[in-house]
Amino acid sequence: MKNKFFGHDFINCNDWSKKELVTAIDVALKLKKKFYLKQPTQYLLHQTLFLLFFFASTRTRTSFEAAMDHLGGNPHDLTVETLQINHGDTSKEIGKILSSYGQGIAIRHCDWKIGNKYINEVANNSNKPVFNMQCDIYHPFQAMADLMTIFEKKGKKLKGKKIVMSWAYAKSYSKPISVPQSFLLLLSLFGADLVLTHPQEFKLMPKIINEIKQNTKTYGGTFEITDNMEEVFDNADVVYPKSWGPLVTTPDQKEGKKIISQYKDWICDEKKMKLTKKDAIYMHCLPADRGVEVTDEVIDGHQSVVYQQAENRLHVQKAILALTMGKDISF
Ligand code: CP
């Protein structure tokens, strides 16, 4: 079968149509079943995927490596320190050279105002698909794994479901804003009632907010922005409380930490979870700052789906890699 996804990049979910995204999730669900049944899935036999990390990773690194193993291909885990990037290799050279050696390039580059630009420059110079493993603006594979998890737990019809993305306090560092942005952008295609809540300094990029509003008009549902964590948990079906940096307000890490420290009561605890529906789910992309961002009781509790989300990274990535790197495949 001719595969119409062949050769496509995956840099932002919303570059794909809603129909294509749903197909990718359907393929991921099939591959998940095959994984449990121990059936072969060697759709990318002897193909090479380069994984280039400018930033640390546990889940993304290991799930992409495992994905290529399961698909019969080879992942090559590269870091900036082991390449000549700091000695002059440009994004153009990385795109042209790595695409001449393999069948795909995946990049994580989260530096504010740099990461997304870099990934697009590589893509413009690569004749093979380029994948965004997280940048300063988007984390598309995380959003797809999150959507797959919501479909599994709540079904595919999200109309009338209250889905909350909330800022939460964390002391480790100013985390990227790519997770809340990609999550809301993707969910806004499915007609849910979306709520975003954060202290005023933690605004998302205006361009992203406008796109979410536009999607809500096109696909139905609602989108509300508030600054009260406790209030928005009321009657929610899905809550996704996580920290991100006040990067739109200030990219300065020191100043950012000072702002973050004012909001220590923005923690997801059992008291807040009790306000949600009985069958509500708690989501987090991980890593979480336990004890400050979320209590152990919640993240280890019966409403938490964090391990399902992490596992679904594998299945979603296998689906998108197979669809974009496999020329003539059917599932
Ligand atoms: N959720 C996520 O992307 O995890 P890593 O940063 O460990 O890859």
From TrEMBL:
<dbReference type="InterPro" id="IPR006132">
    <property type="entry name" value="Asp/Orn_carbamoyltranf_P-bd"/>
</dbReference>
<dbReference type="InterPro" id="IPR006130">
    <property type="entry name" value="Asp/Orn_carbamoylTrfase"/>
</dbReference>
<comment type="similarity">
    <text>Belongs to the aspartate/ornithine carbamoyltransferase superfamily.</text>
</comment>
<feature type="domain" description="Aspartate/ornithine carbamoyltransferase Asp/Orn-binding">
    <location>
        <begin position="179"/>
        <end position="323"/>
    </location>
</feature>
<dbReference type="Pfam" id="PF02729">
    <property type="entry name" value="OTCace_N"/>
</dbReference>
<dbReference type="GO" id="GO:0016597">
    <property type="term" value="F:amino acid binding"/>
</dbReference>
<dbReference type="Pfam" id="PF00185">
    <property type="entry name" value="OTCace"/>
</dbReference>
<feature type="domain" description="Aspartate/ornithine carbamoyltransferase carbamoyl-P binding">
    <location>
        <begin position="9"/>
        <end position="152"/>
    </location>
</feature>
<dbReference type="GO" id="GO:0042450">
    <property type="term" value="P:L-arginine biosynthetic process via ornithine"/>
</dbReference>
<protein>
    <submittedName>
        <fullName>Ornithine carbamoyltransferase</fullName>
    </submittedName>
</protein>
<dbReference type="InterPro" id="IPR006131">
    <property type="entry name" value="Asp_carbamoyltransf_Asp/Orn-bd"/>
</dbReference>
<dbReference type="InterPro" id="IPR036901">
    <property type="entry name" value="Asp/Orn_carbamoylTrfase_sf"/>
</dbReference>
<dbReference type="GO" id="GO:0004585">
    <property type="term" value="F:ornithine carbamoyltransferase activity"/>
</dbReference>
<keyword id="KW-0808">Transferase</keyword>
<dbReference type="GO" id="GO:0019240">
    <property type="term" value="P:citrulline biosynthetic process"/>
</dbReference>
